Amino acid sequence: MDLDIDIDGWPVGRWEQLAVLAAGAAADVAPELANSRLTASVLFTSDDEVHTLNRNWRQRDKPTNVLSFPMLERTELSGLATHGPPAMLGDLALAYATCAHEAEEKGIALEHHAAHLLVHGFLHLAGYDHVGSESHAEEMEALEIAALAKLGITDPYGDRNH
User: 120 labelled as ligand-binding?
Assistant: First the structure.
């Protein structure tokens, strides 16, 4: 997957590398993401910007940690030929202050939490969802855990029973 990464409002760090690693780990556990034709944009930005995006595009007037904007239906993605022009998978946006606050509350490194949110976002772009179905939520969590393990990051849901 080819990524267009923009970093604005995050501290100096290896965010670009983290996004590439997270995309690779997500593709390892969700093979439909491994298609080399796929492109996605990742925006590391401020809470204000994510709040505005959430309000304008999701009609939710509140900040959040990560937003995903898929551009392909799940059936389109799974049926996408491996040869051809680039295909836009979608966009992700991560809110710095919310991510930093959540990482601090959880007692984990910001980089680990951001990697989790990136994997979570990429899975959303692939059509996975956790809302409305316990089995879908469990499937998505299992994929997140497996992808993060590939990055050497412990299970973010370890405090819950599976």
Answer: yes
CA atoms within 13 A on the CB side of 13: 17
3-state secondary structure 47-97: HHHHHHHHHHHHCCCCCCCEEEEECCCHHHHHCCCCCCCCEEEEEEEEEHH
Contact present, 156 and 116 (Cβ < 8 Å): yes
Strands 87-95 vs 66-70: parallel, antiparallel or unpaired: antiparallel
Tell me whether residue 130 is annotated as binding.
Answer: yes
Backbone φ, ψ for residue 46 (5° rounding): -85, 165
136 carries a ligand binding annotation: no
Say whether pLDDT at 101 is over 70: yes
Q: What is the pLDDT of residues 5-39, one digit of tens each?
A: 999 999 999 999 999 999 999 999 999 999 999 99
Please tell me the pTM assigned to this model. Answer: 0.94
- Residue 161: per-residue pLDDT: 45
Domains of the chain from N-terminus onward = 2-150 (3.40.390.30)
Q: What's the rounded Cα separation, in Å, for the pair 111 and 47?
A: 17
Q: What pLDDT was estimated at residue 19?
A: 98
